[in-house]
Design goal:
The structure is a homotrimer of 365-residue chains. Chain A is built from six helices and 22 strands. By secondary structure, chain A is mainly beta. Chain A has a six-stranded mixed sheet. In chain A, strands 1, 2, 3, 5 and 7 form a five-stranded mixed sheet that branches. The longest helix of chain A has 21 residues, at 61-81. At the A-B interface, strand 7, helix 5 and strand 16 of A face helix 2, helix 4, strand 16, strand 19 and strand 20 of B.
Amino acid sequence: MGRRGFLKRAGVVGAVLPVAGGMVVAACYDDPTGGPAAPGVPTQNVQPGAGGTPPAAAVPAWQKIDEDHQKGVVDFLKNQKKPLTKGKGMQELPARIENGVKVFDLTIDEVNWEISPGKVEKARGYNNQIPGPTLRATEGDRVKINVTNNLTESTAIHWHGLLVPNEMDGVPFVTQKPIEPGKTYTYEFTIRNQGSHMYHSHHNSADQVNRGLLGAFIILPKDPASYPKYDKEYILIMNDSLLGFSLNGKGFPATDALVAKKGERVLIRWMNEGMLYHPMHLHGMSMEVFQRDGYPISPPYRCDTIDVPPGNRFDCIIEATEEGVWAFHCHVLSHAEYEGGFFGLVTVLAVDGDKFKVADLLATV
Amino acid sequence: MGRRGFLKRAGVVGAVLPVAGGMVVAACYDDPTGGPAAPGVPTQNVQPGAGGTPPAAAVPAWQKIDEDHQKGVVDFLKNQKKPLTKGKGMQELPARIENGVKVFDLTIDEVNWEISPGKVEKARGYNNQIPGPTLRATEGDRVKINVTNNLTESTAIHWHGLLVPNEMDGVPFVTQKPIEPGKTYTYEFTIRNQGSHMYHSHHNSADQVNRGLLGAFIILPKDPASYPKYDKEYILIMNDSLLGFSLNGKGFPATDALVAKKGERVLIRWMNEGMLYHPMHLHGMSMEVFQRDGYPISPPYRCDTIDVPPGNRFDCIIEATEEGVWAFHCHVLSHAEYEGGFFGLVTVLAVDGDKFKVADLLATV
Amino acid sequence: MGRRGFLKRAGVVGAVLPVAGGMVVAACYDDPTGGPAAPGVPTQNVQPGAGGTPPAAAVPAWQKIDEDHQKGVVDFLKNQKKPLTKGKGMQELPARIENGVKVFDLTIDEVNWEISPGKVEKARGYNNQIPGPTLRATEGDRVKINVTNNLTESTAIHWHGLLVPNEMDGVPFVTQKPIEPGKTYTYEFTIRNQGSHMYHSHHNSADQVNRGLLGAFIILPKDPASYPKYDKEYILIMNDSLLGFSLNGKGFPATDALVAKKGERVLIRWMNEGMLYHPMHLHGMSMEVFQRDGYPISPPYRCDTIDVPPGNRFDCIIEATEEGVWAFHCHVLSHAEYEGGFFGLVTVLAVDGDKFKVADLLATV
């Protein structure tokens, strides 16, 4: 599968999980090394309440914890087949070409954003998406971005990480006037530096960015050979503020799984748009971190827990050598799990191989 | 402009901004790519209240936000011409030479410190400054620091990062008795290691340091050729606790701008004396980070957002290749902006070039 | 002293401090450079209250601060001779060998854990220890770990950093069923990757890990020559949540000192199992950081303040070149000191040399 093909599905895995056979959860239950004999899954242990007692009260607390955890995982699997929440951020926005210029149109609107099932927040989105649509260009491109502000307050966009002329930098009263409600403003510049960059509001930004006015701006190098080879690309934007803990605008179980075939090289473009630090821990494999803010890390370093400070973007490659479903989550555990199970900054890397097939797992839910 | 000349103005830019022509803010309003036609700056849009209604109440909320943001930027520009707050920290303290020893005299006093216009806090300062006066020496120097404690509680000074004899390390009950109220204590040692170091209280330090008992101690290498060349030097000390969010003891708009001429190499010595992390994002250019705690980072790495943990000091060089006014702020956005505009950990890097001149901009306020 | 000998005492220094002569605290009081003439230690300055006033109220506040700080340091010294708290975590757990497999037995129990003198918390421990017993194996070893859950809720163990088969990864409902109360579960796998790894609960983990279900799993390389030489080894696990701020399960003054002889190379295996960042500052010397999560940092970097994000493990070497007692603490000062003195993430590196002997210091308390 070629590199071009993956460029289109940056940032999401969606419902298009590969097909094959063998189920991870069940497989584990057959563990030959001495797992518990008890067959009962927690839901089988529920003791229904008698009389007027509400049934829930009759479930021992520990079984309720297990049930809730299991439900979260099952919901997450279901979410890979059919999204459990409305709204999908980071859809790639194709550029119109006008006189050799790549043109992107962005609107800014109030949106109600469902970050996790049933949790809907008053938010703001570029093109009604959170994060906004992913923009993509190549070094040397001339780009024009038309921004229409449909909010009831002013705004402006900063092209975070991009080397732009000062007047295109998007800081109200420093490099431009704010874009007032109802107005359209056009940014135009020539792309100078490759990298995993971002765009976001730079006006009343502690509020506007935290409510959703942010997105990825991927700049490909003019010479593709200058960038490591990869088979799959994911963009992962961490957030933690007014809308809750999220990856790409969704909290577990509404997050998208990362999927790969055994042996593939998986690129992750990490971006932290939050207020906090989120050391993301990958189970079972390591990450090779080779780029920070679009500049090389030389030599790359390897780790199983990557720490991207707010405002930074780190690029890493995972060699998907280990098949199975591997948890991938923030290791500030209170950003990832509570008595009710996983939430927030949690996803998995699912690696299809000879014995394990993602599709078989999904067929079980 | 020689290196020596800049050593004297470490840490501040003060009112001595270079002179030239072309105004950034105005220039932006002339943006040819399709900016808003509306000429009205927000203050022109104010609808005065009728009758007994207070005028302020009649300003739509979004215009009030814009006005406040604009006022902050204007105040910041004014602050570069004439400080808006009383008190200036980090003044270089010249050493007296006694028998070949460099002698510094420090007093410790209660001070009222104006961190941002009108925000005055009960604080403690070395020589009535926050941060304390900047000390500077060279590897191999013998230094003596006389410390007079005018507080009503004991204290001690730790020379953070400096390799000193154990008994000079400044930890009460571990390496010395505390310096009691009214007493004078003398530290004396030979300088062994170059780097961007610090000095601060090590007694009741969560309170004393956070109230202002901290400063920079810059050690130059014996062989200047062992350190990268630079044209300008800034020291930036981040803080966040009892006195509020600050750079060099001041919060925006009372922070000092960094200024450079196009093409200059700007050295920044970063120091985090706070309790939190402050990933500082530079617009428009990158930083080359080459030293941590006085030890080389090999090879240096480049980034647009630098993250200096509390207690660390990172040295970086910015090549000031892009003219204009570039925001430079903590990307934990809640440390830098709110509905009322920028505050706290915000400054700019202003680069004088052919088209943009800082002096012209300042002439507008 | 050989490397093997130190492997047994990983993570603790205990009461076995080396013996010799010259007392640091006293020595400092003889400082020839102009220390305070006043001989009075703070307790000598106490003004007893008159009449019905409680004596404590008559001690000026500043002297009370000094007294409390001094008491903390004295208690810390006493703790090195005889632990001030009940319970010792991280005892090395010898493996049983069964058919060539290294077998470890872990039980999980409710425990009352004394984190600092008098501060006892309801906690959970592996083998009644917090952190749990230190496990140690070598690349290529086959290991089997029998886990008996004596809690009243389910659990599971994740082998953090170890490359294991998916079904051994310890994530309930993803790779296995949870280990229910009263059940025993066996993990078995072959060790593939050296490094400073961890094991901890991966079920309801924001609660279970924070209450103590964590430990160190040290994997030695098959080829010892591939790892830097060292004379002494310490493991330092940082924590900060439900049980309070701690190093290896204890808060100052109940923390263990690190001790070395002048010239020794001291290995520290850092692990952050907390929710926060703890930039640990070493006085007087630097650390050479050469490994992250078991992968090389190339080239190593040096610093005096090391920052290990939650979930990461960093290995560093300190060359113990400077004799004396050197503070070693989190530089988020509110994690290390308050008006009552040091607490939490504080210890020292005590270096025995010609003039300073740890034993002499300890003989004073």
